[in-house]
Structures are given as structure tokens and as C-alpha cells.
Write a structure and sequence with these properties.
Layout lengths: L2 H15 L2 H6 L1 E8 L5 E3 L1 H14 E12 L5 E12 L13 E13 L2 E9 L1 H8 L1
Parallel strand pairs: 1-6
Antiparallel strand pairs: 1-2, 3-4, 4-5, 5-6
Length: 133
């Protein structure tokens, strides 16, 4: 495993543990967070706010995680399955009443000095909407 994949492993292990502080420890201070269907958020504070919102509305666990990295360690990716429960209505989305969902997802990262400086996350929103509607 490369240093980049070790960093990603720690990041995704922290995600599955619900440990936002451990996730933040893997990010650069100026991280650019490109969310699916959303605006780019910059910095650890914005990332932490996003995580707080997500944990309020959703309970998710990632399984079947496969990590990839460039030989120079500056870019990496993960493919996974998102297993979730829709807990609280997210504004602009269907009403939540404990619906479960399972969808493929992926994240693409840039790393600098051993820290994740960009996170781009993808999942199929239409698939998710169909599962929770």
C-alpha cells in the first residue's frame, strides 16, 4: 500500500466510525470539498459543518471499499458501496421516515504533503431519490 492509500484508509475508517475529528486529521487546512450536486466547500471548518449536517440527516456506512493511488502519491481514489438510512428530511429532498438505501459511490482525492487537499465525491442522485421516494 502507498502512503496515499494509507491516508485514504484512515479517512474511510474514520468515516465508518463516525469520527469527524479523525477525518479532519487527514485533511489539509485548505481542503476543497467537491460534494455531489453541491457547491465546493473550502477549509476544514466547512467540511466539519457538512459532516454535522450529514450525520443529522443520514446514517451511512461504506462497504466494499477499494482504494487506488497514483505512483507519485498525489492522487488517489476509492470505490465503495454506500449503505444508509435517511433519518431527517434534508431541505429540498423527499421527506425522511427511516428509508434505507444502497448505492455505488466513489471519491477522488488530491494529496499534498501527506494530507488530502481535495475530496470529490460521486453517487447517483437519481438512484438515491428512487430508493427513498
Amino acid at each position: 500500500m502507498t502512503d496515499a492509500t494509507h491516508t485514504l484508509r484512515r479517512y474511510f475508517d474514520a468515516f465508518n466510525a463516525g469520527d469527524v475529528d479523525a477525518m479532519l486529521a487527514e485533511l489539509s487546512d485548505d481542503v476543497a470539498h467537491h460534494v455531489n450536486e453541491g457547491k465546493v466547500r473550502r477549509g476544514k471548518a466547512a467540511f466539519a459543518e457538512f459532516c454535522a449536517h450529514m450525520s443529522h440527516c443520514y446514517a451511512e456506512e461504506l462497504t466494499d471499499i477499494v482504494l487506488f493511488s497514483a505512483q507519485d502519491g498525489t492522487r488517489a481514489a476509492a470505490e465503495f458501496t454506500v449503505n444508509g438510512t435517511y433519518l431527517q428530511t434534508d431541505p429540498g429532498l423527499p421527506d425522511a421516515h427511516g428509508q434505507t438505501y444502497c448505492l455505488p459511490g466513489g471519491s477522488f482525492m488530491t494529496l499534498q504533503d501527506g494530507k488530502i487537499s481535495r475530496v470529490t465525491t460521486y453517487y447517483n442522485l437519481a438512484d438515491w431519490l428512487q430508493q427513498v421516494s
